[in-house]
Amino acid sequence: MVTYFSEIYRGLLSLFEGMGVTFKEFIKPTVTVSYPYETLEMCERYRGHIELIENEEGEPNCVVCMMCQRACPSDCISIAGKKEEGSKKKVLTKYMLDFTKCSLCGTCVESCNFNALDFSKEYNLASTRKEDFYFDLLKRLEDRNK
Amino acid sequence: MNLTLLNVIVAVVIAIAFAALNAAYLVWAERRGAARIQRRPGPNINGPFGLLQPPLDGIKLMAKQLTTPGGADKVLFIAAPVLAMFPAIMSFVTIPFSDTIVAKNMNVGVLMIFAFASMGSMSLVFAGWSSRNKYSMMSSVRAVSQAVAYEIPMLITTITVVMIAGSTDLMEIVNQQSPSILHWNIFPLLGNSHNLLMPLSFLIFFTCTLAETNRAPFDLGEAESELVAGFHTEYGSMGFGLFFMGEYANIVIGSCMTTILFLGGWSCPFGLFPGVWWFIIKLYILIATFIWIRWTFPRTTIYGLLNLSWKILIPLSLFNLLFTAGLIKVF
Ligand code: SF4
Ligand code: SF4
């Protein structure tokens, strides 16, 4: 008999305790991010697709040494460059990334000795078309500087 | 008030509008409340604070096709959602919101509301039976055992209140509680019973309303984790919409009854400015508690549910009935 009543009493008490917990949560501010309207800043070590790094003039650091293209195990990168008349350095004219095959392994970034390649923080990449994942990194660099 | 045809039509239209508006915006409140408890914003895109969400949902539901599963019992299948909504609306007719706002006061108001409330579980049985779906069937079996188990303590508690008031007239029950908060049946220190166990009765009654309206933590009829969606698995479009509205209308009725029987109806706690606003305030505090409870507790098991009723609620409510009878005899 005593256990019967004490069980009821303890049960009832725990119900009120539970309601206290939810009430406290109720008055606290929300913690979620309304995604399409707000986005989170990606963390430092996030690996998005690769991206060209620019120098102060807004030109790519790349010297078209082809190391990244050769290093890529999935053959995602295709580069083209040409030598201007009278100048010693090659200038990058095309940097295409086939992101459909990229495994984000980072070998290209590691192999670049000229600080010309890095991971982007881009993650809003959903699409229904394959063509949307062939990135022209040179164009993206220009768009960034616009 | 004379019962002319015009009066009846106006009363019914107002009742339907009140029920529909409540259903729509309680869904909104429910979703916002649930979201706040889970620390999210909830629906906030359509209109300010997401206030346009319910009408848009309604339009979406109405635009859908009403399908009947093959082999279903068509007549019962269509009758079930109507039966879910109709008793709820009928009950509104006799509920007094203040001493003037009542469509038709009856001296057996309590009885009438419980008669209609018991029809509510019929709709679940019809829906489950006619759907030709094993999950719906199981759900309706549960709904019946639940309705049987919880109507008993609910009625016993109501009888306790009726005994104290000496009347089944809802107006009369409220009038007896009107002088002050200490006359309310939840805490009747100055009433004519002086029963200190009444807060317990209030809890029993409130728990039973939760169970009667099939709300979490007693929503075993719906139990989406085991029975898909229970009795309304096969319903789409406004068939589902009517079940949904019926659920919220029943919540409003249950809260109205709790307010009238235990919280003094439209009387003010301090005896000042009695009126419909007090009724509305109490009503919505109770409804908010319904929502709060739903998002606090997980669903019980069917055994837990029946044990709670037969082993705890019924003995306690019976004891309180006898105790109250004794006190009334003494004082
Ligand atoms: S991250 Fe790896 S797979 Fe992707 S482009 Fe660079 S080397 Fe190729
Ligand atoms: S390794 Fe660096 S510098 Fe060389 S081509 Fe690739 S990005 Fe340009």
UniProtKB/TrEMBL annotation, chain A:
4Fe-4S ferredoxin-type domain boundaries: 51-82, 93-122
Binding site for [4Fe-4S] cluster 1: 62, 65, 68, 112
Catalytic activity of the protein: a quinone + NADH + 5 H(+)(in) = a quinol + NAD(+) + 4 H(+)(out)
A Pfam family reported for this protein in Swiss-Prot or TrEMBL: Fer4_7
Membrane topology: Peripheral membrane protein
Keyword 4Fe-4S: yes
Sample GO molecular function, one term: NADH dehydrogenase (quinone) (non-electrogenic) activity
Cofactor note: Binds 2 [4Fe-4S] clusters per subunit.
PANTHER family: NADH DEHYDROGENASE UBIQUINONE IRON-SULFUR PROTEIN 8, MITOCHONDRIAL, NADH-QUINONE OXIDOREDUCTASE SUBUNIT I 2
Family per similarity comment: Belongs to the complex I 23 kDa subunit family.
Protein name: NADH-quinone oxidoreductase subunit I
Organism: Desulforhopalus singaporensis
Gene: nuoI
UniProtKB/TrEMBL annotation, chain B:
EC number: 7.1.1.-
Entry keyword set: Cell membrane, Membrane, NAD, Quinone, Translocase, Transmembrane, Transmembrane helix, Ubiquinone
Protein's name in the database: NADH-quinone oxidoreductase subunit H
Quaternary assembly: NDH-1 is composed of 14 different subunits. Subunits NuoA, H, J, K, L, M, N constitute the membrane sector of the complex.
Compartments (UniProt record): Cell membrane; Membrane
GO molecular function: NADH dehydrogenase activity; oxidoreductase activity, acting on NAD(P)H, quinone or similar compound as acceptor; quinone binding
Entry's Gene Ontology cellular component terms: plasma membrane
Organism: Desulforhopalus singaporensis
Main location: membrane
Entry-linked NCBIfam families: PRK06076.1-2
Transmembrane segments: 6-29, 75-97, 109-127, 148-166, 186-206, 248-266, 272-293, 305-328
GO biological process: aerobic respiration
Catalysed reactions listed for this entry: a quinone + NADH + 5 H(+)(in) = a quinol + NAD(+) + 4 H(+)(out)
Role, per record: NDH-1 shuttles electrons from NADH, via FMN and iron-sulfur (Fe-S) centers, to quinones in the respiratory chain. The immediate electron acceptor for the enzyme in this species is believed to be ubiquinone. Couples the redox reaction to proton translocation (for every two electrons transferred, four hydrogen ions are translocated across the cytoplasmic membrane), and thus conserves the redox energy in a proton gradient. This subunit may bind ubiquinone.
Family: Belongs to the complex I subunit 1 family.
Xref: Pfam families: NADHdh
Membrane topology, as annotated: Multi-pass membrane protein
